[in-house]
């Protein structure tokens, strides 16, 4: 993918915005954008995060890419209205983090959900015959409850993912694992509380984060602007109005339904009230 670019932007700060749930499409866009930041040799990156989190693997890939880029580019993350769970995780890839005092953040933990429709299926007289190669091949099947061994297997999976999350936060924020575990129990907290816990470095707006990134890059904050790397719209989306015809609330609801269906049975770094 070729991003629009002019030489004069080398003295500007790149800006990438992360909004909504983190999944495959978000990961693809961000990895392409981060590659462009490196190739075009932007001196600094402002990473604006407004996300409740998302899938574990996608969050980890974004974090790893940010961590690699940090060797060449100054990165400052700005937590917006909400930066929770997987949003926190990718923020750990930044060199510094700024949050608003009222930012909703935290929710450090893992969740895995499945649907059990066994009673409903019994009521309407529907049953399934399953042929499987092993006792756990249909784990989290929607037509039956979990067995105790299955619960143990899934809990071990969740615990491993949780340890990865805690270890990353501890290393990124120079905290001990025990310190992180003391507040990494799924709770949410404000930006002010996050500062006190050591999750963020400063309180401030996105503009404050932009100025800090400029200073770190040796640029004049008063004369340095951001060049936003936006996700290009497909030709089809430009021709067809699609979801732009519906209300934002309805469109967001459709996005959530799609996300829930596609991630059922997957461990998630996600906060959803």
TrEMBL record:
Molecular-function annotations in GO: serine-type peptidase activity
Keywords associated with the record: Hydrolase, Protease, Serine protease
Record domain Peptidase S49: where: 68-219
InterPro entries xrefs: ClpP/crotonase-like_dom_sf (IPR029045), Pept_S49_SppA (IPR004635), Peptidase_S49 (IPR002142), S49_SppA_C (IPR047272)
One BP term from GO: proteolysis
UniProt KW Protease keyword: yes
Gene3D superfamilies reported in the protein's UniProt record: 2-enoyl-CoA Hydratase, Chain A, domain 1 (3.90.226.10)
Similarity comment: Belongs to the peptidase S49 family.
Protein name: Signal peptide peptidase SppA
Species whose genome carries this gene: Leptolyngbya sp. NK1-12
